[in-house]
Amino acid sequence: MSDHAGRIVGIYQRHALAFDGARGKSLFERPWLERFKSLLPTDSAILDIGCGSGEPIARHFIEAGRAVTGIDASPPLIGLCTQRFPEQDWLVADMRSLALGRRFGGLLAWDSFFHLTPEDQRGMFAVFAAHAAPGAALMFTSGPSHGEAIGSFEGEPLYHGSLDPQEYRELLDRSGFAVVSHVVEDPGCGGRTIWLARTR
């Protein structure tokens, strides 16, 4: 299945406009985004890891007065972000090798981190730690248990991977984060499994 993981970037390059059109703008994630926002240090910036087209999530934070730096491996999606929010920072980058030399008060990897293989996900916790300011909040979505699954988007196989919940807890702890909240397959958020943590 990991062969499919290597095709993720290409899917989001070829189908950027379809993804943008399919992504609802109703912000059903709002309760979680508000919890995340409540943990952010005053006036701190947010790093949106796998920002997609910048709507609706980055827009939500920008309109709340937060500076956003968004990274995505799809140049067409970053192009949409740049058109919509030219005053923010948008970068084409692979999250696995991210090294911005900056720290942020909020790190968000919503519906992006789970496209990595389990092994690559393990490596991401050092990336999170390297970009987290003191007191930073971290929120990401994962699968409910260890494994791999293949969905579909625009007729192409869409890879998802996950670690076991206990391993996520251990990785967060070793990386200096304490779990604030964890909900498995939250029915109020489209069945997503969500992790919200904060640097100790």
Q: What share of residues are in beta strands? A: 25-35%
What is the terminal-to-terminal distance? Answer: 36 Å
In the CATH hierarchy, the architecture is 3-Layer(aba) Sandwich
Major sheet description: 7 strands, mixed
The rounded Rg comes to 16 Å
State the CATH superfamily name: Vaccinia Virus protein VP39
Shape: globular
State the gist of this model.
Keywords: Methyltransferase, Transferase. By secondary structure, the protein is of the alpha/beta class.
Q: Could you explain the architecture of this structure?
A:
Residues 46-135 form the Methyltransferase domain. Keywords: Methyltransferase, Transferase. This is Class I SAM-dependent methyltransferase. One of its GO terms (molecular function) is methyltransferase activity. The chain is an alpha/beta fold. The chain has a single domain (2-162, 173-199), classed as Rossmann fold, CATH 3.40.50. The chain is 34% helix and 31% strand. It is built from eight helices and nine strands. The strands form two sheets. A seven-stranded mixed β-sheet has the order 3-2-1-4-5-9-8, with helices on both faces. A two-stranded antiparallel ribbon has the order 6-7. The protein is globular, with a radius of gyration of 16 Å. The N and C termini lie far apart (36 Å). The model has no long low-confidence stretch (mean pLDDT 93).
